[in-house]
Amino acid sequence: MVHTLNKQDINVDAGEDTKPKKFIMWLFVVSSTIMFGGWTSFYIVFAASKGKGHGLVLPDAFMYSTGIILASSVCLFLAARGLRKGDISLSRIFLLATMVLGVAFGYVQFDAWKSMVNTGAVLTNNNAAISLIYIVSGFHLLHIFAGLCIVLNAFVGTYKEMSLEQRKYRMEIASIFWHFIDILWIYLYVFLLLNS
Amino acid sequence: MSTISLHDTHNHDSHDDHGHHKETFLTKYIFSQDHKMIAKQFLITGIIMAVIAMGLSILFRLQLAWPDKSFPILETFLGKWAEGGRIKPDFYLALVTIHGTIMVFFVLTAGLSGTFSNLLIPLQLGARDMASPFLNMLSYWFFFTACVIMMGSFFIQTGPASAGWTVYPPLSALPTAISGSGLGMTMWLISMVLFVASSLMGGINYVSTVLNMRTKGMDLWKMPLTIWAFFLTAILGILSFPVLVAGVVLLIFDRSFGTSFYLSDIVMGTQVLPNEGGSPILWQHLFWFLGHPEVYIVIMPALGISSEVISVNSRKPIFGYHAMIYSLIGITILSFIVWGHHMFVTGMNPLLGGVFMITTLIIAVPSAVKTFNYLATLWRGNIKFTPAMLFAIGLVSFFISGGLTGIFLGNASLDINLHDTYFVVAHFHLVMGSAAIFGMLAGVYHWFPKMFGRMMSSKLGYLHFWLTFIAAYLVFFPLHFLGLDGVPRRYYAFTEFEFMQKWLTVNVFVTWAAIFGALAQVAFLWNFFYSIFRGKKAPQNPWGANTLEWTTPVEHLHGNWPGEIPTVYRWPYDYSKPGAEEDFIPQTVPFSQTMSSNMPHDFEGDVESERIQREWEANNKAADDTEKLD
Fold this sequence. Notes:
Chain A: It is a multi-pass membrane protein. With 196 residues, chain A is an all-alpha fold.
């Protein structure tokens, strides 16, 4: 006989169930940080041994995108606060704003690449430091795409029939990840600015 | 996700309102989210990959032993890769590359950690399942896909990757360098990216489970050493595998998009390549930053398993439980700062080489602590020579004999001589190859009853052990001498050099020993697969062990324990405790039930418990005295 037991029967309350999963997200943040750490240390060793960095004036678009991603983080923070206060519609608006800003960020990054290509600093380059700019910003953009999916998941959650606990859980997962990729971009941008 | 299925024949009436959960063949055996089933999937896939990799090694051993002889049968099976019955040089390189890759990553990382972390973390910690069963399932399927792609590269025109398991550029970065650098290399890279994703999903899950889902009473210092080893292994993976991904991504861009991360000043034939400014040494740094922790990812679970098996079968507490944990932590930390010892001959600054040499020699200290603790645990134990125990002792043997040569190789000045010779091959095949395989086999024999509810045949187990143990030494020990004489590894036909020709007879011997060792594995394979279906039914606790997994019912159920999860009261190594009724006290037995065997330090300074114990002892003594007077 195979059947299922409800959670109550096995003494697991919903609150405890989400903790390990949130922890998984933190561990993912750690491993992702290390991957980017691998690239930036490549950059440092490369630049030190060749005595030169990328040597570019970074396109202004990177500055704008930094502003945009910061604004999106603020929006997500407000969305989470809205949910905590029980104001679902406010939370929805800010989640939507976060996603719109996320997409805008992606667009501006493409723009930045375009202006880099126009100045001749292309991906296929004999200066690996310049190629690395494309690699780190490209893989960061992949993270943005994943982040958009996770924020969308929280957004859909506000429309679905589910408990406040579950909505909060989705929101927290989205917050951990989105604020992480925000900070990650700032790190990368500052790194590239300082190591030209 | 929020429900747990349960096989229950008695009181299902009371649960009927929860609705029936239908388990189909697909959800039970294929896309299972049950950690025990995923563990079996990892194990069986790992065994299949191990058999394949062993077969590859026999093929290249044939070439090494009889470089001028033709084996027409090879042409029948391998076609153009063995034209005229002789392995082609290109294919030889592919064989060593894929043998190494499969053994290191697919067998000893995924097959070992994937099997035993999945099986034992929830069972020994008292959890219903992993932190994320879904991610766990995904981890297996990424691994499986990686296996399929890696093996798929044998079926393409240009053959599998051939640049060695470390895939150093430029050989790996230029698709036209050798035939294996083409599509085969691309498939290798794709396979490895999937593999790393699988490893990360698994490792993240293990760490989260260990830190968040232990049962009541199971504090970190009451965890079995197996769990400590799996936990630290997973941390190593999380911290080092992403660096490999970073390196692989750059390699993929060098191969396919014309960047110059690792390439510079290359002339192919008469053509000068446009790539400038890169450095292949940077790949080695990124690779070995993963690569060195990787060898500890391979050996630490095996060490954890043998700690458990040796303690259980010596019927003695593990010697130096805390020292064992601190040495594991020491190995974990040190393993990140020794990678340079793989690169002593890359033109490294001698000062930096000295630093890496010192860190490498320091890592011998925690390793030696572990070895001495194993020996001290065995010392005057009431040893039960089960097959698992033999394999665990075998691990200790290989760990010592292979570890000693590590001290030679860790010395920068000696390494200049020994680098890339068969001495290195002998060293790592003993210390991480054989030792880790023996740890894995110890685990299989020990936990087979838990996995399949049946026992394996001990007789075949003994046969398997002795044949494998002897064969492994006969294969790998002579290679030391080749290496000392300067015979280089990875060469297709080193007999072309006159001074090395004398080693041909040794190679013939080694190849025969390898064939003999490979045949011995039939005893294992037969025993394993036969016992799954026809083995003797396993009792609840066949080895008389203390850990939690033996309190679960023999018949598996998703959720592990039918009722409440048991609470843990004591550490897992109370074997042969003076005054106890039996020679083992499971972790679930409270001290109040073992008054006659409690020791003052058991209470960890709890004054109330100590008072009760003293009172009981005083009463008991008085009762004894009156009994004696009568």
